[in-house]
Each structure stands twice: as structure tokens, then as C-alpha cells.
Amino acid sequence: ARLGNRFAQTSVSGGATGGTAFEHLFYNVSGQLTHRLSSASDLLDANSSVLSAAGVSGDSVRKLATLADREGIPVAPRSFASDAIANTGIFLGRFDLPKSLDDPGAKDIWSLLVYGKVSQYQSLGPGVTATPSLGSNANSAILMAQLVHSSYFGPHNTWLNELRSGFTSNANRTSPWTAAPGGQVLVGSTLPDNTGAVSSLTFGGAGTTGSHAHSWTWETTNTTQWYVHGRANTLKLYGNSRFDGYESRSPGANLGTFSYNSLAELAANSPASYTRTLAAPATSGGEWSGVLALGDFLRKSPTFELEGGLRVEGNHFLTTPALNPAVADAFGVRNDAVPNTLHLSPRLGFTWVLGHGQTMRNVGEYGNGTGMFYQGPYGVMRGGVGEWRSILAPSLLAGPGAATGLPGATQTLTCIGSATPAPDWAAYTSSPSAVPSQCAGGSSGVFRDAAPDVQLIDPSYTAGRSWRANLIWEARLPGFRYKLDGTYALNLDGAGIYDLNFVSNPRFVLANEGDRPVYVPASSIVPSTGSSSAVDARKSSSFGAVTDRVSDLRGDARQVTVYAIPNIPFQIGIVTLGY
User: How confident is the model at residue 569 (pLDDT cuts 50, 70, 90)?
Assistant: First the structure.
């Protein structure tokens, strides 16, 4: 409430369940419509208490508004909703069709699951530290359909098979209210309680003309389990095949961001830096991933059970980044490597029930002339060890596919200090083509950086994995029960990055900061702001940052948890009324 986040919400929902005539088809469907109206607090209309909670004083906001009006900086669109509106529609349904129309209870059933969600957002995300000009509208849609087939088969119907195959589509579109460059300024404020705060306030446009993103997944799983020697030994075979695809694009131009270190810089219309993405190609790609696992549940005795298995996992990316020979020549690493992998993971666990005063065969129950009695176990020990492996995201190659360093690939312009162009906000609002595409004074100089960045996947890259082991002891003592839980995890192949274009030779050190090394010469640092250019710390001037994604990180974790739960007696009084 202190941030002004109050809302009113109305929801209408309904559902139906049942079967058709003669129960040939069973259905269960539901739907919901939701309308949410909330106060969209922004920098210009937030009250003093809301601003204080965000670390901003009203005086700073008034100064910003005055300077923005003078410079022609857009702070509010011509027409916009004063409230944030979110409309959502959801549908969920399941339809079951027995294979035998004469026997609705047949153990062979086809099912169809359908899910859909459509959302519309207006006045999305300006926040209390941003002007309403940064608001946007967004639309999203999720559609999913899954076919399920369940059946019993084999001798005496002791085999169970379940097949699932589903397709999911997810689309998102965002359109900003103001197509103009963005701005941000650091502001130091004295709050009503005499404490100080530093905040970053954003204004102007969103720096982009919008974005479209679409992803889809087709996944099929099959699980078969059967009893080998009765229920004491159960085998389970699991298979999974999954195709993922994605595409992302910005239909218009990226318009950049001007950054100011103070309101005084804004008053002088002298930003400290300017960044803009000059080229942002559309990205698309896909991946196949699959799993084949065999598990075995074995009950050795009424008090001891084993469960283990082997899991084979693999993946194959459907696209490859375009090769840039200049990258391989300069850094000795190709930029078109993709992590297509195949891996085997084992797992093993056990459960051991310890009886109190009984044999292993009859733990938990005994009999006499009166009847059979059950006695709880003295303690239970459970544990296991195995390897778990993370999945490689289908969008892992989105960055390397767009940032190849080739013509038409992703390219970013960075200007700092004297190379920062003086913005003409009024011209940008009327004509986005007037937005600068180069630094002040041309494209050369240490404070001007337009070298293309490169992203690549190291040939040794693989999915992160973790060896985990745990041991649990749970037992009872007079008056309470307790549990000891110990876990250890060894995490391997963690993701990390290196900049292959960074030269780690310090140019000088800062003696008053513990000899902190500085990797650029003093001539690459703007004296008035301390901003530094990385141009002189690069191995090759033809490229910007050359980010090599590796998987060489490792770590471990240990955890011991103790639970103690007392047995609290309850006295129940019974009152008998007589007449």
C-alpha cells in the first residue's frame, strides 16, 4: 500500500463435468475471465509517502519535471490510461473416451487435455521511479493440447502403459507508449526523516519500438511398468522426446539510452554516456532433447526396499551460429560450436524399517489370543545417491547466433565522456531517424566504441550436473519423535564466462584502495565521472567483448537438519445429560 499498489479485481468462472449419453464420452471443462484494475503509480503522480518509500524526495522529482519540460524530454504520452488494466481469460478441459464403447470402465482410455490463456496488459510497468512515458501495452497467449493414452495389457493385465504427447505454443508482444530514446539520471535525495538516499530515475521513451517473441514445445513421454515377480519387484521404463523452438525479433529500431550522473548534468544537457544497439537481428532456433530411463523397485523383505536405475540423456541443437573465421584466427576458438551431448546418470536409494522387538519378517504386527495388533517401527532409515543433470535451454544459442561479429550481426554503440552526443530530445520525438547512430566527433577515439561483440559456446561446454547423497534417520522416543536429515551435493560443470578479448595486464594500481589494479591507462578514464573505456584493454580492436561461455565451475553444499516433534496429549471431556 505504501507504494500505491491498490487494486480491484473481478473474476467470473464456470465449469461443467459429466458424460454423454451411455457414457461414451466423459468431460470436465472450466473457464475464467478476470478483470484487474490497479492504480498505476508513476514518478509524476506518486505522493510524498510513496516517493519516500522508493528513496526519492519530491523536490528531486519537481526539478526533473522542470528540466524535462525545458529540454522537450517526453515524460508522458499524449493519451494514456491513468490506471493499469489486466484482462485474462483461461480455459481448461479434459475429455476421456474409453476404447470400448460397450464398457465405459475399460482399462484402455484415450484422453485429451486442452489449456488456453490469453492476457492483455495496459500500462505495464513504469513504476514509481519512472515517468509514465515508459509505460507499454503487452499481449500474451498460451495454448496447449495434450493427448493421453492409458492401458493395461500383458498377462492378467499386469503391465501398465501411459503415453502422453502434447504441443504448447507461447506468444508475447510488447509495444511501448513512447517510441523515443530513454534516459536515466542518478539523484541524491534527503528524505523527510533526514536520511539520505541515491536513486536512479528513468524518463523519456522505452528506447525501442517493441518486441515479438514466440516459443513452442512438442513433447512426448511414454511410461511402462510391470511386475516381474509379483509386487515385490517392479520395473519401470521411461522415455521422453522433446522438440523446442523459439523466435524473437524487434520490428523497429533500437533508439538507445542517455545516462546522466546528476540533475546538474541534465540541466546542462551533458550526459555522461550514450548506448544504442545499432543492429539487432531476429533470432530463431530449436533443440531436440530426449531421455531413456530404466528403474527397478525391489522389496527384499518386509523391512528393506531398494530402488535404483539408469538414465540416459541427450540433446541436439537444430541450428548452428554462422562461422566467423576472424574470431578463430584471433582467439583460437571457433564460434560455431554447439553443445550436443549424451550422458548416463545412475541413481540408487533404499528404505530400511527397524522393528522394536520383532523379527524382520513380522515387523509391525503380532498376534495373540485376542487378535492381531500393530506396533509401529522403532525407526526408519532412508538414503540414496545419484547424479542429477540440468537441461540445456533451447535459447542457449540465441546470443551466439546473433552476436557473431559478422556484417548484420548484433552491434552496439557506446559513447562516454566527450564522445557522448548532446541529445536533441524534441527532434527525436518528432523523427526517430534523428537519433544518433555514431558518437560525437565521428567513430574514432578511445571514448568511442562500435566494435561488434561476439558470443560463443566453448567446445567443452556441457550441462551442469550434481552428485547428491542423503541419509535420513527417523525414530520415536518417549514423548516425542525426531528426524535427522543429512545431505551432501557436489556440483560440477557450472556455467561461467570469459572475455577472450580482455588483456589482464594492469596498467597501474590504486595505492589508496589496497593496490587495486586498473587495466586501462589513465587516458581511457573520464576525469569528471570516472567512467572508463575498455578499448585499450582488448587484445583485438576488431571486436568488442568476446564472451566465451564455459562450464568449468564447481562447488559443494552440506546440510544437516534436525526435526523434533513432541507428542502433545489432548483431554476430551464427555458430558452425559440425563432426563
Answer: low
Tell me which residue of 283, 550, 275 sits closest to 399, measured CA to CA: 283
| 151 vs 457, more confident | 457
- Please state whether beta strands 516-518 and 508-510 pair in parallel, antiparallel, or not at all (unpaired): antiparallel
Cα 227 to Cα 159, 222, 236, 307, 385: the distances in Å are 7, 17, 9, 14, 24
Q: Say yes or no to pLDDT of 95 above 90.
A: yes
Phi and psi at residue 378, to the nearest 5°: -70, -40
Q: How many other C-beta atoms can be found within 10 angstroms of the C-beta atom of residue 557? A: 11
CA–CA gap between residue 267 and residue 272 (Å, rounded):
13
Separation CA 149–CA 154 (nearest Å): 16
Q: What residue type is assigned to position 555 of the chain? A: G
CA 446 to chain centre: 37
- What Rg do the C-alpha atoms of the chain give, in angstroms? 32
Helical H runs in 321-448? 325-331, 398-402, 425-430
Q: Is 338 exposed, middle or buried (0-12, 13-18, 19+ CB in 10 A)?
A: buried
Return the amino acid letter for 428.
Y
Query: Closest Cα partner for 136 from 125, 145, 127, 147?
Result: 125
Burial of 324 (0-12, 13-18, 19+ CB in 10 A): buried
Per DSSP, 263 falls in state H
What tens digit of pLDDT does each residue of 342-352 get?
Answer: 999 999 999 99
Cα separations in angstroms, 521 against 82, 127, 446, 549: 50, 39, 11, 28
DSSP state at residue 451: P
Name the nearest CA neighbour of 535 among 451, 456, 453.
Answer: 451
DSSP per position, 387-407: EEEPPPPGGGGHHHHH-SSST
What is the average per-residue pLDDT within 200-218? 90
Are the CB atoms for 31 and 85 separated by under 8 Å?
A: no
Angle at 412 between CA 409 and CA 417, to 5 degrees: 160
Distance CA 432, CA 205 (A): 11
Q: Which residues of 457-492 are buried (b: 16+ CB within 10 A; e: fewer)?
A: bbeebbbbbbebebebbeeeeeeeeebeeeeeeebb
pLDDT at 362: 45
Q: Is 11 helix (H, G, I), strand (E, B) or coil?
A: strand
| Helix residue spans in 95-170 (DSSP H) | none
> Checking DSSP bridges between strand 233-249 and strand 159-176, what pairing results, if any?
unpaired
pLDDT digits (tens, 9 = 90+) for 23-74: 678 899 999 999 998 877 788 877 788 888 888 888 899 999 999 999 889 8
pLDDT at 560 exceeding the cut of 70: yes
Residue 68, φ and ψ in degrees, nearest 5: -65, -40
The tens digit of pLDDT for each residue in 404-424 reads 999 989 999 999 999 999 999
Q: What is the mean pLDDT of residues 521-540?
A: 91
Closest CA to 494 of 539, 441, 550: 550
Residue 441 has pLDDT above 50, yes or no: yes
Distance CA 379, CA 361 (A): 16
pTM score? 0.82
